[in-house]
Amino acid sequence: MGIKIVKPTSPGRRSATFDDFSDITKTQPEKSLIIIRKIQAGRNNQGKITVRHQGGGVKRYIRQIDFFRDKFDVPGKIMSVEYDPNRGARIGLVYYQDGAKRYIVMPIGLKVGEVILSSQKPIEIKAGNALPIKFIPPGVAVYNIELEPGRGGKIARAAGNLVYVMGVEGNYAQLKMPSGEIRLVNKDCLSTVGQVSNPDYRHITIGRAGRQRLLGIRPTVRGTAQNPVDHPHGGGEGNQPIGLKHPKTKWGKPALGVKTRKGNKKSNRLIIQRRKK
Questions:
Q1: Which of 14, 47, 93, 266 is most enclosed, with most CB atoms within 10 A?
Q2: Tens digit of each residue's pLDDT (9 = 90 or more) over 153-202
Q3: Which H or E run contains 191?
Q4: 83-120 core/surface letters (b: 16 or more CB in 10 A; e: else)
């Protein structure tokens, strides 16, 4: 993928950058692997807003991605590289030898026509192959990693992400996360070799408000720009500082950098080194 810059015909387009989609080989999704995306607009079953700043957006299909990679010892061939509007990474359509079709999150370097394999035994360490962490040598980059065996990949699925295997000791493998955190994961958890595709995604600049609305993101109003009745930061003439001991949310709870992780969380014992501050 590359970043495309367009002629500055308006202030919005002057600062905007776009994906050039040069790596896409197929434009229409596989019909058997898509479902309609129902727009919730951040509301619960009572119609109340539980997640703010969501709503609108263009109509999309959900591509059903195989995060489990549980087609063990059945070779699959990459038939196409496709765009997925629901994620930054590219997805690949895989045809397996037994006739099954599945989408996977594509790694960097995997091309159309190549064969991938998923196994619970030692196999070749190459981009796109999935196997337990205990069979992966230290220093190798992996993605789509399970936190518990058989529960499907949860970690490092976003565009450009990768996790480094630091080593295996006892029942656990040490992994260095994208955040810099080093933590233990069960060595029987599956992971996929490689780095997630489309690392340039982070360099795309939205450029204008209308493009955010197409993504389903509604405007966010600063607390300091609101009235005192609406937000603790509100009120005053002109620009004002917060004027409080610490920043607060709209509902009066501490905000901006406050740690929300529970002190008695079970997984605390699995974290060897906290993420970079």
A1: 93
A2: 999 999 999 999 999 998 999 999 989 999 999 999 999 999 999 999 99
A3: strand 190-193
A4: bbeebbbbbbbbbeeeeeebbbbbbbebeeeeebbbbe
pTM of the model: 0.87
CA end-to-end distance (rounded Å), the chain = 31
How far, CA to CA in Å, does 197 sit from each of 126, 162, 189, 202? 14, 10, 22, 12
- Burial (CB count within 10 angstroms: exposed 0-12, middle 13-18, buried 19+), residue 174: buried
Domains (range + CATH), the chain: 3-202 (2.40.50.140)
List the structure tokens of 63: 């591509």
Contact 104, 90 (CB under 8 A): no
